[in-house]
Write the structure tokens for this entry.
Amino acid sequence: MTDAQETAADSSLRTTGGGPPDDDGLAPEGLPIPLLEPRDGIPPVIEDEESLAATVAAFAAGTGPVAVDAERASGYRYGQRAYLVQLRREGAGTALVDPVACPDLSGLGEALGDTEWVLHAATQDLPCLREIGMVPSSLFDTELAGRLAGFPRVGLGAMVESVLGYVLEKGHSAVDWSTRPLPEPWLRYAALDVELLVDLRDALEKELDRQGKLEWAREEFDAIASAPPAPPRKDPWRRTSGMHKVRRRRQMAVVRELWTARDRIAQRRDVSPGKVLSDGAIVEAALGLPPNVHALAGLTGFGHRMGRRQLEQWQAAVDRAKALPDSELPQPGQTVSGPPPPRSWADRDPAAAARLSAARAAISTLAEQLNMPQENLITPDTVRRVCWEPPAQVTEESVATALAGHGARRWQITQVTPALVTALS
């Protein structure tokens, strides 16, 4: 049993509804305890400036790390904005904040100052938190910590169960969080998501320290906290599901026109683009190049429930693509920086292909020895880049410099450089 799993035996963490645990507080052998209620009950939703000010003061006066989570309405609304923010801190309790009613939470973010934020899968929540003025100066990511520590399942529910011995109810993870008012069962679920996050953080910190990986994790967390916002994706229409079926440039132009028209409508209506028109329908129209509305209506995704006006707007997009001169048609594939796809290496540069094969095998072996996923040890893209264009003189110093140039962290460089020097030689 790891130190982290031994934390499950700490009776001070155990509760099924805010009261004291039964008997000695331990779950029956092999059976985790269902976590049914937040220990302080479900707090009222913060949705006015007066309540927000009181919450800011309470969390500023709290102690220790602050657990933070955010709920979005993916699949229901346009974009990835936050529709509920949950926080918990010792001395302040749990707060549920409505960022629709209180769209500027910069005061709350500033009040936390240099406090460590504890998030699960931080990169998913940080963009929507940044939009409402909440940016951590330091953080602890419990999902990433679980990966580095070698846990096979790193979802929040799985981590809480395997480390702390509790079962979290996850039935509301994919609901429409833009719903108002939010139902009580959803609020209970939201409060429970931050209930044990700091406890999980503490247990994982002990486990990482036991494995000699705590400093590695801190480097990773610092990199996430200091990373700038991601730039807008170039040609996002190319990520349409089923795009691999679209071969001709004229068909690609249809995808681009339909995707752009759909995105404009979805943004105006504030609904998920998939609710306006499915990716499958876009690809069907691109492959079929329908000459008129009647032909379009016969394609999958443009069924009988779609009105004439809607069909006409989609046909207009198809017609715009069909009318484009060849010079304005999109080029096949995306312009990407870096090496070509590895499947072409054997023909284009057999020596590079041999280097990549050796490097992949070495990284796989090392990741297994360190008990962590290969992609957390070093990103596959970094390995490809170094293997495609290795240093002129392969030494530990030159390989380490190359890895640093591609964004590898110090601990990663220390671990993988010897293996890559051998592979590149």
Observations:
- The chain is about 50% helix and 10% strand.
- The radius of gyration is 26 Å.
- Residues 7-28 have pLDDT under 50 and may be disordered.
